Amino acid sequence: MKRDMELIREIVFAVEGEDENFLEHFQIEGYSIEKVAYHCYQLVQGGYAEGRVVNDMKNKRTIITNLTWEGHEFADLARSQTVWQKTMKLVKDRSDTVGMGVLMQLLAATAKSIFGL
Questions:
Q1: Residue 20: pLDDT over 70
Q2: What does the alpha-carbon distance between residue 17 and residue 11 come to, in Å, rounded to a whole number?
Q3: CB-count burial class (<10 Å; 0-12, 13-18, 19+) for 68
Q4: How far apart (Å, rounded) are the C-alpha atoms in residues 4 and 48?
Q5: Which percentage of the chain shows pLDDT scores above 90?
Q6: What is the distance between the alpha carbons of residues 95 and 97, in angstroms, rounded to a whole number?
Q7: What angle do CA 94, 100, 102 make, to 5 degrees?
Q8: 50-88: pLDDT as tens digits
Q9: Which residues are registered as beta bridge partners of 66?
Q10: Alpha carbon distance 53, 74 (integer Å)
Q11: In angstroms, how far is CA 12 from the centroid of its own chain?
Q12: Cα dist. 105→10, 26, 98 in Å?
């Protein structure tokens, strides 16, 4: 399954707004439960969220307990719709996809340019 940065952004914001453990079985409009579950797992594996993978007889679940420092950094950089849209347009115009590290750098550079830094 291909990583979807728009969905990652939505999940990070959803987790940020929760006070309790966050299961992958929540719904984000326009995305299948399986796609959301995969991206929750990837956020934990990538170090942007803390949590655990629970295997039961029927399926594998990812329980996100909270965002890591890096997850909060991503949320702060991606929060502005203006910064997000400008950055994603740049990505789409140049390569269509980038890794999370490059995306974070591009978000930071876009935010800095908006502030005149």
A1: no
A2: 10
A3: middle
A4: 15
A5: 50
A6: 5
A7: 50
A8: 988 887 767 777 888 889 999 999 999 999 999 999 999
A9: 50
A10: 22
A11: 5
A12: 19, 29, 11
Residue type present at position 50: E
Amino acid at 48: Y
CB-based contact 43:35 (threshold 8 Å): no
Q: Two tokens at 47?
A: 């170090």
DSSP the chain: ----HHHHHHHHHHHHT-SS-EETT---TTS-HHHHHHHHHHHHHTTSEEEEEEE-SS-EEEEEEEE-HHHHHHHHHH--HHHHHHHHHHHHHHTS---HHHHHHHHHHHHHHHTT-
93, two tokens? 């115009």
Pick from 77, 20, 19: which is nearest to 48 by CA? Answer: 77
